[in-house]
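Run folding on both entries below.
>entry_1
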Amino acid sequence: MRIKTVQDRRIQKTHKLLREALVSLIAEKPYDSIVVKEILDRANVGRSTFYMHFRDKDDLLISGIHEMLGPVPSPTRMYAEKWQDRLLFFSLPVFLHHYGHAHAWGDRIGARGRAILHEHLRRALAEAISVVVRQEPRTLRKLSRQIPADLLADFVASSFVLVLNWWLDRGMPQPPKEINDTFYKLISPALVAVWE
């Protein structure tokens, strides 16, 4: 058991080093121009180690998205919250994350880099939202008669990314809590129509 724990810690440390290297490179140059070799040099990680864990730099970026989102809330925690908060558990943390990093990055990630990042973010969010919906069997039965759960998940995720892009394109004029409240106001009518 001790060997497994040491290996897990080693893997976590390697992933952290690679993600930090990618983030620091994004702060210096456009995402499109970053190559895996630069990430390896910055992280001081070997090529074979990188490819043991990730297919390419996009895959590394996706792993950072999943880490940022964290685990989907457990059903026990979820039932203590309002249904809307359960479904949109990701929104404020993602706004806070972007607010904390975007000032350092500026526009260096570039339009294509952001498009890649946000498409991966949209997919990861849709998956996470689907998990939340499936954890509520009564809701899922009701939804399946009206709107497919995967369509609802895609709609919420796409709407979130739209708001996130609007906010970033304008230089984050509101603080994260305020733009999160705006997102809730925009998405709430659709959720209420589906849920109630």
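>entry_2
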Amino acid sequence: MSAIVVALVGASAVGQFFLKFYLGRDSVFGIVPFLNVGMEDNLPTWYSSSALLFCAATLGVIAQRARALRVPHHTAWAALCGIFVLLSIDEAVSLHEGMTRPVRDHVADYFSAWVIPGAILVLIVGLAFLRFVRDLPRRTRRLVVLAGTLFVSGALGLEAVAGIIRTSHAYNPDTQLPLAILTTLEELLEMVGIVVFAYALLDYLGGLTRAREADVPAPVR
């Protein structure tokens, strides 16, 4: 997954910063937009959606095994599975973009339309899973917190900055390169966050599997 992320972000950077901004070639037979991590319905979007779905499937397996081993908070793993299915669907069809676009058209304020509701949603989910994360094994907890920080920093933090620039300087050619840089960094943070989370899940699942095979209590802390 790390190799795929490096390849996708590298290809997007070449397309954006060399072909588009340096050579002035916006399309090149559709290759530039097809590889642009800042656009929808293309190769990077399909990868990100698939990676989120992979995490959802892994969470489902963990939930099933945690329940069989009577690990505390096994229902939280199942809830996370559902959340990641929704995130995968959102990545594939841009649900949050479609839902906030009418609001942005009326309020013309990116913070009111997406950043504030998004931050509130993240806060609610964080508080709901606070005890669950606290009770994870130390290694898993650190990886999960790191993954969440990376993902939210990109999905909410840098996207907010890019949204403000788009709202304040629409169609200004001087903002196109900074926007491309911000969008690339935003997607990179999201992708790396997903990779770290997938690693954390597989590492934790390995511990559950060894516990099941050895018929010993599963790790709690």
